[in-house]
Amino acid sequence: MAKPSLAYLFAAFLLLIVSISLSKPSPKSSLYDTFLHCFTQHTNSSTQFSNIVFPQSNPKFPFVTQNYIRNARFNTPLTQKLLLIVTPQVESHVQATVICAKSVNSQPNINLGGIIVNVKNEVAMVQAGATLGEVYYRIWEKSKVLGFPAGVCPTVDVGGHISGGGYDNMLRKHGLSVDNVIDAQIVDVKGNLLNRKTMGEDLFWAIRGGGGASFGVILSFTFKLVPVPKTVTVFRVEKTLEENATDFVLLFMRLLLQPVSSKVVKGGNTIRASVVALFLGGANEVVPILAKQFPLLGLRKENCTEVSWMDSVLWWDDDKSLKNGAKPETLLDRHANTADFLKRKSDYVQKAIPREGLEFIWKRMIELGKTGLVFNPYGRKMAQGNLFKVQYSVTWKDPSLAAAQNFLNQARKLYSYMTPFVSKNPRSAFLNYRDLDIGVNNFRKNSFQEGEVYGAKYFNGNFQRLIKVKTVVDSTNFFRNEQSIPLAPSKA
Q1: Catalytic residue (choose from 32, 433, 454, 458)
Q2: Is 433 labeled as catalytic in the residue annotation?
Q3: Which parts of the sequence belong to the FAD-binding PCMH-type domain (predicted)?
Q4: Assuming Cys at both sites, which of 39, 44, 85, 144 could form a disulfide with 54, CB separation 3.0 to 4.6 Å?
Q5: pTM as predicted
Q6: Residue 445: pLDDT band with limits 50, 70, 90
């Protein structure tokens, strides 16, 4: 693929944010002045730097900082606040930002949103801050028979999704999102702009699942697109406990499990189990397959909806919006300033949960009242010892501290109840849900012992290799956060 114009990519939409400083600048100069002076020294652009670097006093600053918060729990007076916003226009601006963030001991975060799709070569170059919905839309603009296997939540940013591994409904056929990443661009701790060839295979491996923020500032990924049929089939089948949902769950596909009001027991609650699935083909093909393999599912053609791959993306986001005539353009809506309060946790299941175990889980879920489970199946390319991943999911709108404590406690209790049924030694977790309950690092001190607690849970046997990569590419541990990869003990 011919290298696209970076000027075009940056112009599309981008935002570079420098997060909270760990030390204060000299009393004789503000952080803004110190950063701007450094920025001027490290770029050759003719653009007015005052139009690139914005201090907190800028009137647009509060709107921009809130615009990209996806969890309202992190939009409170106690949340660490941004200090500067940088809107780079060329690569050198990003490189200078990394260098100058070091000079004021601050952490850079990035949101670059350009997308270029090359249908002839079946690839797409996507900057880290583009959302999955924007990626799907830009692919659909150019081709109706190409897609990309990434998540079902369209407002998730590409950088976080890919650097945490990434998976979607096509993983059984096409593997994880990272299995289809063929190149990347990253600015390292020295301000060097690197691609796959110049960064080396170890770092390229690390940023596709090891958490990119531990190693540098990722600018973009290049995807190998995958073929999709002109017609795919989506379906949803629901049953409650009164309709033998436990038998239904024992079949297992992708399951949504939620406490709901019972229609049988007045004033009581039950569990609703919903199988939701994507089939890369027509309804006439999938119905007889599932009738043979999963007869208890009772799938009928009327349960199925035949759509294009693009419309299946809309269906997964919100099937009601598809029924109401939603258009692909809705994927370009970032839903600014509409975040709910939420908590997500995760587990992996390696042995089938017996019926009595499921019945115990249903009882506990009904008692708690709000927290739901999502069982995400593996298999085929993902058959590596895990049967499925469990997501604990609770979302609420009440901004009070009492509400937050109530719902957080619910999620944590259900997580505790699931202990006998999930992976052990370590009890594994999915990086992209970033669960601080499982361990945090005092990143100012870079405690290897603290990092090892969550690192083993997220990465299992890959943790030691990630430590080696981290120690080589960022020996001063500049790129760090509460759950970043720590340095090797000898360097800590």
Answers
A1: 433
A2: yes
A3: 103-228
A4: 85
A5: 0.88
A6: low
